[in-house]
Amino acid sequence: MRAPSSDLPLVLAGVSFEAGATKILDSLNLTIAPGPPTLIVGPNGAGKTSLLRICMGLSSPSAGRITWGGCADRAPRRRAIVFQRPVMLRRSTAANVAYALAQAGVPRNHRAPRVAELLNRVGLADLAARPARRLSGGEQQRLALARALARDPEILLLDEPTANLDPAATRSVEDIVLTAAQSGIKILMTSHDLGQVRRLAGDVIFLVRGRLRERKLVVDFLDSPSTPEAARFLRGDLVI
After folding, report:
1. CATH number at residue 84
2. Are 210 and 24 in contact (CB under 8 A)?
């Protein structure tokens, strides 16, 4: 019997990405394997979002190769992405999740209990009937996470999901992310919040100008950076 397909490990081999004459990612070699969350940090313009898009398969490398579970052309069936400002469908909260389940191929007669389960998981069960576009920013981000989890992902890519949220909403999102990680979902997430990095990360990828400058366990990165750029970044200095 054939083993089930997997999107992990996700491997980037010499991956570069250019937009016009601008090199956004430069010869990256990375392996993303099962385990605790991996957080991507770096100054603005480091290429963090572009890296996530390539890992999802939304953008193609200008050079190099990316594989998911050893395959270069695998459709994103076991991976999902949540952007910093997710788009809400003009439907209720529950109908947004039902739509995601339909897109994931879940049979119609199985969707209602799954919608209820996912909304409960992200703390939105009491808002199931509310129009999604009337939710607060934090509630919309939790709904976006429910839609992503509807795909039963093996790897979940998150682009600064708490960047515009207050502390209480941030904590709610972080709790969902940690629960997902504890359930076995690999989290690959960008963040600008070093406190969040310490709270969530198992390891850290540090990018500068599209180049990998460090890859370390979170404690080692935050307490003992190896490169001058990382030391300046952690002090809050400008890194250009």
Report:
1. 3.40.50.300
2. yes
